[in-house]
Structures are given as C-alpha cells and as structure tokens.
C-alpha cells in the first residue's frame, strides 16, 4: 500500500492545486479521498484560485471506487464535497488530464472553468451497474444541454474532448503538452482579479444557476435508495466478476 496521500495539496503563490492521487485506481473516489477533498475545499486558506486535477495521464477521476460494495459513507461524503465546492470562496478550475466518469464528471461540472486535454473523455455509465447519476444530475444540467445529458445518462455514451466542449462540459481543450501552460495562464488571470469581488461574484453566479447553490437532497436520497437495492447489488457484483449482469439482453 502506498504511503502517499490520496489527495496532494500544493500551494504556489495564490494558486492551490489539489491532485487526486490514486492513478492505479484511475483516481477513483473512496471515502478517504472524498474527505480529503472536502477538507481542502472547505478551507482553502487565502488561495485566490483552486485547481483540481488527477494524477497521471490516464484519468481525471473515474467516479466512485466500485472495487467493493458502494459504501454509504462515500455517497454521503460526496454530497458534502459538492456542497463544499459550491461554498468555496475561490473560483475552481478543473484541469481535466484524462477520462472523467460518474462522480468525476460531477466534480468538473462543480468547477467554474474546465480546461481539458484533447485525450480527455466524459461519461456517466452508472446505468450499466444498476445505478443512475442522481447526485451529479443538477451539475450536469448546469453546464450541458438536456439532450447530451439524457444520452449519456440513459445510453452511457462517452463523449470525446471535442464533443464535451460542444456540449458545454469543457470550457476548451488543448494539446496534452500545452495543458499545464493553459492552466497556469488561466489561474494567474483569475488570481489577478480582486479577491473580494471574485468571492462575492462567485456566490452570486452560483446562486443564479441554482436556487440555493447546494446539491439536491432528493437526488442524494434517490441515489442512496437505488445503491442499496437488488439491481445495484447485482450490477456491482457483475462488474467485479467481469460478467454481464442478470438483466443484460446479450
């Protein structure tokens, strides 16, 4: 087991960078990682901008760690994490270095700006294991069209980086070797703005997007109910056992 933390915090000037550090698990979210991200967003210090990314080049974040049964603690913690991102006083930039799936898409949608590598992809394939992207649904609809969200949620369609830009998930995309330069340039531009103006402005901006700026508790409850039901239990078991679930038509 690695002694490295699951989330690496690095501060450079006014920029706080948070790196999900589980590349061997495609930067999947377990309860410890969710808790570490929550702590960082709840208290970013005096950082003027927060950059969120994933370790390595394979994945930004593959969503919940489905290597075992879905822990109730991870689901509850993820709801709190999304709320902390909404309450964060500093604007958030998602550095999307690779694939984003499930909850990982929720994270990049909860950010204010998302700059992606041309190799990045976006998908919400929860239905394949008997789940549905309930908790992130308000965030998906915040940035993308209902038609794109519906196809992803109902059919599990994966979007390429260019498709994700067109849909609204990414602000823009760039060549992989230019990603860091784009992130640095944007982070410096945000950090150069009036910090109190950005704090007040972000609060007002998010209030306009959502009635209360918080995750929808009804969505979280729907996810919890589904995740403990027989279909999700079968879907997750099938995934672990590398077989088709019992409801498969093939």
Order of helices and strands: EEHEEHEEHEEHHEHEHHHH
| Strand arrangement across the biggest beta sheet | 1-2-3-5-7-10
CATH class: Alpha Beta
In angstroms, what separates the terminal alpha carbons?
38 Å
Task: Report the CATH architecture.
Answer: Alpha-Beta Complex
Shape: globular
The fourth-level CATH homologous superfamily is 2-enoyl-CoA Hydratase, Chain A, domain 1
Q: What percent of residues adopt helix (DSSP H or I)?
A: 40-55%
Q: Give the domain tally.
A: 1
The proportion of strand residues reads 15-25%
Task: Specify Rg, calculated over alpha carbons.
Answer: 17 Å
Structural class by sheet pairing and helices: alpha/beta
Notable characteristics:
2-enoyl-CoA Hydratase, Chain A, domain 1, alpha/beta, 250 residues, 17% strand, 4-stranded mixed sheet
Topology:
Layout: E1 7-12, E2 15-20, H1 31-42, E3 49-54, E4 59-61, H2 72-87, E5 92-96, E6 99-101, H3 103-110, E7 113-117, E8 121-123, H4 137-143, H5 146-155, E9 159-160, H6 161-167, E10 172-174, H7 179-191, H8 195-209, H9 217-227, H10 230-240
Parallel strand pairs: 2-3, 3-5, 4-6, 5-7, 6-8, 7-10
Antiparallel strand pairs: 1-2, 8-9
Helix pairs in contact: 1-2, 2-3, 2-9, 3-4
Q: Care to describe what's here?
A:
By secondary structure, the chain is α/β, with parallel strands linked by helices. The protein has a single domain (7-177, 195-209), classed as 2-enoyl-CoA Hydratase, Chain A, domain 1, CATH 3.90.226.10. It has helices at 31-42, 72-87, 103-110, 137-143, 146-155, 161-167, 179-191, 195-209, 217-227, 230-240; strands spanning 7-12, 15-20, 49-54, 59-61, 92-96, 99-101, 113-117, 121-123, 159-160, 172-174. The chain starts with 6 loop residues before the first strand and ends in a 10-residue tail after the last helix. The mean pLDDT is 90.
């Amino acid at each position: 087991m690695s002694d490295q933390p699951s989330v690496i915090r690095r501060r450079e000037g006014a920029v706080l960078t948070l790196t999900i550090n589980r590349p061997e698990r495609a930067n999947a979210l377990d309860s410890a990682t969710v808790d570490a991200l929550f702590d960082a967003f709840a208290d970013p210090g005096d950082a003027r901008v927060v950059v969120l990314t994933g370790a390595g080049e394979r994945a930004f974040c593959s969503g919940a760690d489905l290597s075992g049964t879905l822990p109730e603690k991870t689901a509850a913690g993820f709801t709190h994490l999304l709320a902390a991102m909404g309450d964060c006083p500093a604007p958030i930039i998602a550095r999307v270095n690779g694939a984003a799936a499930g909850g990982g898409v929720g994270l990049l949608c909860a950010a204010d700006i998302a700059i992606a590598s041309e190799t990045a992809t976006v998908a919400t394939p929860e239905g394949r294991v008997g789940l549905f992207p309930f908790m992130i649904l308000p965030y998906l609809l915040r940035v993308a069209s209902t038609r794109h969200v519906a196809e992803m949620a109902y059919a599990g369609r994966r979007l390429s980086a260019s498709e994700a830009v067109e849909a609204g998930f990414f602000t823009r995309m760039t060549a992989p070797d230019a990603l860091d330069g784009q992130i640095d340039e944007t982070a410096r531009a945000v950090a150069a703005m009036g910090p109190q103006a950005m704090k007040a402005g972000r609060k007002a901006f998010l209030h306009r997007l959502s009635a209360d700026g918080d995750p929808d508790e009804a969505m979280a409850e729907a996810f919890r109910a589904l995740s403990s039901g027989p279909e999700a239990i079968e879907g997750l078991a099938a995934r672990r056992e590398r077989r088709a679930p019992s409801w498969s038509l093939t």
